[in-house]
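Module 6 notes. Inverse folding takes a fixed backbone as the condition and produces residue identities as the prediction. Think of it as a translation problem where the source language is geometry and the target language is the twenty amino acids. Below is one complete input and output pair. Work through it position by position during the lab.
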């Protein structure tokens, strides 16, 4: 994802140029994992925040912008300090930040647990340690940044549940990092998937995730994404 340049093999570029359909299985596997056995209690709250990291934030943001019940999804950085929360600096892999997405949702319509289920099932591959697909470095790690102690407990229990169930063919490496601030990314990163649907990186790595969301979670899929630009 460096410098907004797509990272594709020559064969993949030729396939796209020829009009071939690239499936998610050619990039990262997608499967519905069981929902968390532990989830939040029913609440009267109308808004809640989940901060999730799972590789390049373009695709993670794009997925959650298409989830019914999500009211906002903002790309950004979490895990490091405010003064290093800049794309080029984070790209060094030395800041502690991970490319992350702040997902704001209505817990009366979708629970935190189901947000996590989509995160593990569609948004990224939780078995890839410090990388996702073609992107390498700790800034692309699989991490949940809980907003509350209850979220931390639910996320931790869910990671353990998936490990014990051998839900994936390789070990889940997702970490839980509470108490970390989120910093929005630069404006040109927001809504990137929607604004640049023909970008080769998006075509190969991220559009398959949107198709998988629609296929695997039809009741939670919304055709029209909730965009950052519309909130400004």
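Target side of the pair, the amino acids:
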């Amino acid at each position: 994802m460096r410098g907004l340049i797509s990272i594709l093999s020559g064969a993949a570029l030729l396939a796209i140029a020829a009009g071939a359909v690239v499936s998610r299985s050619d990039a990262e596997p997608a499967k519905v994992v069981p929902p968390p056995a532990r989830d939040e209690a029913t609440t009267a709250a109308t808004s809640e925040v989940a901060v999730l990291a799972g590789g390049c934030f373009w695709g993670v943001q794009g997925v959650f912008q298409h989830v019914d019940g999500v009211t906002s999804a903002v790309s950004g950085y979490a895990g490091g300090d405010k003064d290093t929360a800049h794309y080029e600096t984070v790209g060094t892999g030395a800041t502690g930040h991970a490319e992350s997405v702040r997902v704001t949702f209505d817990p009366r319509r979708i629970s935190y647990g189901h947000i996590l289920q989509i995160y593990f099932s569609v948004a990224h591959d939780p078995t890839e340690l410090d990388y996702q697909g073609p992107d390498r470095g700790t800034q692309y790690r699989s991490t949940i940044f809980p907003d509350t102690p209850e979220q931390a407990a639910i996320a931790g229990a869910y990671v353990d549940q998936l490990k014990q169930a051998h839900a994936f063919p390789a070990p889940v490496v997702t970490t839980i990092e509470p108490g970390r601030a989120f910093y929005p990314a630069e404006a040109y990163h927001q809504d990137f998937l929607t604004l640049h649907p023909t970008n080769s990186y998006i075509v190969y790595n991220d559009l398959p995730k949107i198709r998988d969301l629609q296929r695997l979670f039809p009741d939670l899929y919304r055709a029209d994404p909730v965009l950052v630009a519309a909130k400004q």
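Reference fact for the lab report: The first helix runs from residue 10 to 17.
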